[in-house]
Amino acid sequence: MKYLNLLFALLFAVFTAVQYNDPDSLIWMILYGYLTVLFIMGFMGKFVKPALWVGLAICIIGAFIHVGGLYEFLTNHDGIGFSQGMSNEYPYIEKAREFGGLVIGGLAMWFLFWQMRKNQA
Description:
Radius of gyration: 16 Å
Number of strands: 0
Helix content: over 70%
Shape: elongated
Structural class: mainly alpha
Distance between the termini: 15 Å
Order of helices and strands: HHHH
Number of helices: 4
Strand content: under 5%
């Protein structure tokens, strides 16, 4: 289990790195960097419950904010998918991608909570 924390830390470090050219990159780099740090701490066996709650809350709230973009993406009939680049013409693509990242972050945070509970038992 310990090494899954390292795998998640690497995943979120990559998420952080690929945000450099995003229009709102600072927000996403801070979020993914925060999650990276939490998973590095989890790898070392250190769990800070308030920090985990903050990370989970940000992921859940952010996902709810971006769920409209996911809905728009799923219901579009213009043939545009995730592989197409971002454009002003299809802003829902970026919102759907951001939703996906937040859901991955939220699920990963649940894993940290589960692991913290297991370590305290």
